[in-house]
TrEMBL record:
The lineage of its organism: Bacteria, Pseudomonadati, Pseudomonadota, Betaproteobacteria, Neisseriales. This is Predicted Zn-dependent peptidase. Residues 33-178 form the Peptidase M16 N-terminal domain. Residues 434-456 are annotated as: Disordered. Belongs to the peptidase M16 family. InterPro entries: Metalloenz_LuxS/M16, Pept_M16_N, Pept_M16_Zn_BS, Peptidase_M16, Peptidase_M16_C.
Amino acid sequence: MHRLALPAVALFLGLARPVLANPYEAVLDNGMKVIVKEDHRAPVAVSQLWYRVGSVDEVNGRTGLSHLLEHMMFKGTQKVPAGEFSRLIAAAGGKDNAFTSRDHTVYFQQLAADRLPLALQLESDRMANLAFKDEAFNSELNVVKEERRWRTDDQPAGRLYEALYAGAFIASPVRTPVIGWMGDLDSMKPDDLRAWYRQWYVPNNATLVVVGDVKAEEVLAQARAAFGGLAGRTLPERRPQPEPPQNGIRRLSVKAPSELPYLALAWKAPRLERIDQSEPYAYAMLASLLDGLDASRLPRRLVREQAVATSVSASYDMLTRAGALFTVIGVPAQGVAPARLEKAIRAELDRIAREGVSAAELERVRRQVEAARIYEKDSMFAQAMQIGTVESLGFSWRDEPEFVQRLTAVTSQQVQAVARGLKDDDLTVVTLVPQPLPKGAPKSMPMEGGDSHGVR
């Protein structure tokens, strides 16, 4: 989904001592970054440990490693047997979980603020001392295979998204599903996962984010006590995997049991690499103008006025370590062919390319941005997510005012320019062709991004 409440981004700053501001920041001697944001409205704390490793770091034949390792991190160490991590957090009145995306793997706990040291000690232990037997690996591998069947193989939306990214990219690792290809899961070995763990699960590849009713100096001391004794290591070389020019529209069709057809149009778009780039902000604004509320262009014109779609949405995420897509996905109305819906979507984009957008439309999105900034402050978890996301992508939490200012300063002319930049040479179109549903089969899951997977 496109982000309206955009977090702060800036170049990575490696500081030896805390920055005396809220948030507070320090880098331990082993290279691990710690960021603490005090929020004293409730006696709780959120701890998130972000590892900068995800599916974009994987190679052909070894896909799905990051996600499966996330599962195995709950299978115990010499000190903390399998299942004991979550039991200890629950006994302390908290809850924990994890998720994997293309860009990072995250482990988190939400618990009473005075129990934060427990979470840090447990995370430190499994950062250095993960131990799992082959039998546990084989059992969890079967769990992941079943997750893949449930979320992708047996879901028309999942098949559509997988085909979309695999078709749009041919060299970039963005084409790889986070959960991995089934053939790679079939051939995966326990030692593959142990090697992946040793390569990437080191303090200098991790950022700890804590938000809550805490004192920053105390949390930094607790983090040093928990993680300071762990040694950093040289990380594997991350070689660039540039995507070659597409030079022509790509069309794919996918057959799957489904009540309705789906249509996806995706154009390659620039990702944000520097805070002063202008195009990514314009693409983000265009996505929000097309799809944000009922008054947005696509729901208003294609669903209510023209009645060619039952639903239609636009998305763009500038914050990624690899390739980005500007995507429009729709479900044709009853009796409407996907080709007709495609024509209507492209006509709406062409209209913006010719005429731009109104000041009132831009102001509506600006108000959404400001409202989202306010509402996300109500959630400690959301605050930590914003900080961790941009930090794991090589930016910083510091420049949120500039980040938001650049988004809200986007003009109609800039939106018009990026709409004109949506060329067929960068376009991939995927149509899901519905097949009869098996008798008694459940309805398909709703369309969703499909770019992250959690343990439970």
